Predict the 3D structure of the following.
Amino acid sequence: MFNIVEKKIPPLFTKIIKLYLSILKQPYLSFLMDFKTVLFYVIAKITPQPARQSMPNFLKVLSFFVLITISVNTSTANAQENDTKVTVGVPLYVYHPDERPGSRDWNDGWFQNEGIFADISWPVYSLGQSTDLRLGATAGIFDNSIYDTSVFAGGMAEIETHITNRVFFNLGTYAGAITGYEDGLQPAIAPYIGTGFHITEKVELGVRGYWLPAETIAGSDIAPSDAHVGAITIGTRF
């Protein structure tokens, strides 16, 4: 059944879904409470061996920061009591399913598209005891697929569900305007799927997979190919 569905889902989304299904099938679900295990399991699964060997220093520093934070703060998270959520992320991997016309390749791969994005959201409707519809705003800047700088801003909508006090999944989309392509300022949309882990009551780490369609909301083409982006995120709630 999953093979039928995955043909309609972008490859990066499929990879993330399969990864976390495999995590949930582990015989000892309690290992999810050990973030060190989750962190290194995710990196090992989604990162090819050559990329792991050349992993930039900032990611190594981030890993050590996470481990130190876990060691010094073991308070139990209950994030659903906090309404406002702020998330900051950086892209790790970008993939294009189609070849780029001309002699120059896409700007993609591991750690090639430097940038940063952020979003802020609030729960507006409860879909269940552990599930909320959240609305908010987002903005960011990054090196895009055609070796130019893109700036984007807009709104966001997200469904978030907690499977434990510490582990949550989210499914959402960004919608707004983006620069950096041939036709200047254009409308754009970026659906995403992700998961996160509360390492303390106020700090959470996560991963997201974004699908950036080549066709804009208005029907014009930004680029000849869709883009699939994997990102790591850090957030807080208050």
Remarks:
- The domain at 2-237 is CATH 2.40.160.20 (Porin).
- The longest helix spans residues 57-72.
- The chain has one domain: 2-237.
